[in-house]
Design goal:
184 residues, alpha+beta, HIT family, subunit A, five-stranded antiparallel beta sheet, 7 helices
């Protein structure tokens, strides 16, 4: 090996990576999904399990009497929230009037909090009822609240099937939970 090759190896060893034409998208929070395997949600209902965990471990930002709000473990955008009844029911028509009212109230409050915390310009709201309709967890009702910004779309989802998320889930959970009005 020449002196120049030795110097190049030493220089490269001191770098975090060898420079090339690729840009890096660091998403360390995704390791939890990779380690969980291809179908981590099939054994246990994550929406039944979350309320039994600490708010931080369950990604819960607010708890109501019949429903609660948590971050989506597979977010479309930073701040993507879900409103779930505590009861394990698959569709909206099976919710009680009390659950429907609280899901609506929590959805409105989530929108207010997200608007304050993230300064989003709009929202996508929706419920996918059943696997055929796109529900990832089709046996437990949940309302999606996805904050949107005028400049949040780019080529990643279309070309690379990748969504760039600028914040870690724990950071988003803290910001939203801290901004949520707590009633004494």
């Amino acid at each position: 090996m020449s002196v120049e090759e030795d110097r190049e190896l030493l220089d490269a060893a001191e770098l975090p990576g060898v420079p090339d034409e690729f840009q890096r998208l660091w998403t360390p929070h995704r390791m939890a999904y990779i380690q969980a395997g291809p179908e981590p949600l099939r054994e246990d209902c994550p929406f039944c399990a979350a309320p039994h965990k600490s708010d931080e471990d369950g990604l819960i930002v607010a708890r109501g009497r019949t429903a609660y709000v948590l971050l989506n473990l597979f977010p479309y955008n930073s701040g993507h929230l879900l409103v779930c009844p505590y009861r394990h029911i698959p569709t909206y028509d099976l919710a009680t009037p009390e659950e429907v009212a609280e899901i609506g109230q929590l959805t409105q409050q989530a929108m207010r909090v997200l608007r304050h915390v993230s300064r989003c310009n709009g929202f996508n709201l929706g419920m996918n009822q059943g696997a055929v309709a796109g529900a990832g967890v089709d046996e437990h009702l949940h309302q999606h609240i996805v904050p949107r910004w005028s400049a949040d779309a780019n080529f990643f989802p279309i070309i690379a099937k990748t969504k760039a998320l600028p914040q870690l889930l724990g950071e988003v959970r803290h910001a939203v939970a801290d901004a949520w009005p707590h009633h004494a």
